[in-house]
Amino acid sequence: MRKKLIALAITGLMAVCLLGYAGLGVAGDDGSPGTVDDPLVTKSFVENYMQKVLAEFKPAGGGSLAWSVAELKPGDNFIGKSGTEFILRAGSAIIVDPSGGGVPDLTAGTNVPAGGPVAKNHLFSLPRDDGRGIQAQTDCVIMYRGF
User: Fold this and answer.
1) C-beta separation of 89 from 139 below 8 A
2) Which is it for strands 123-125 and 85-90: parallel, antiparallel or unpaired?
């Protein structure tokens, strides 16, 4: 009886040791930085990679990531394509929107309907290529990108 109890205790201890050892192998593969799943990289690698990605990036609609400046006379329309962003820097303008969906004012977090005033120094984004834009009421200067 005593031999059976000792054999059972040794078997149980060995099982615990094996499970513990197997657990260490799994714990080492948790995707921590520096492991095979998440290797450490150098700053120059990341910079070179990002330069390549940005060189190959083409914005939707064939526009540009750089800001451009336009001057509008009273009555002039600025109609952009989907994804065009603009900022009114000087003058006054109203929203042009034949679809009736309005133009998002990203700075204020609101939607400006057709005929609504364009706030100066606010970022606006045209959601669709459906004739939305602005109409100058006075001499205006706008910055835009993605046209």
Assistant:
1) no
2) antiparallel
d(CA 109, CA 47) in angstroms, rounded, equals 34
Burial tier of 86 (Cβ tally within 10 Å: 0-12, 13-18, 19+)? buried
**Alpha helices of 28-101 — where are they, by DSSP H?**
43-56
In terms of domains, do 101 and 53 share one? no
| CA separation for the pair 140, 88 (Å, rounded) | 7
pLDDT of 22 over the 70 cut: no
Question: Which of the pair, 27 or 68, is modelled with greater confidence?
Answer: 68
Beta strands, E only, 9-147: 68-72, 77-79, 85-90, 93-96, 103-105, 110-112, 123-125, 133-136, 140-145
Based on the fold, state whether residues 24 and 46 are members of the same structural domain.
Answer: yes
Q: Where is 14: in which H helix or E strand?
A: helix 2-27
pLDDT band of 122, cuts 50, 70, 90:
very high
pTM: 0.59
The range of the structural domain enclosing residue 33 comes to 2-60
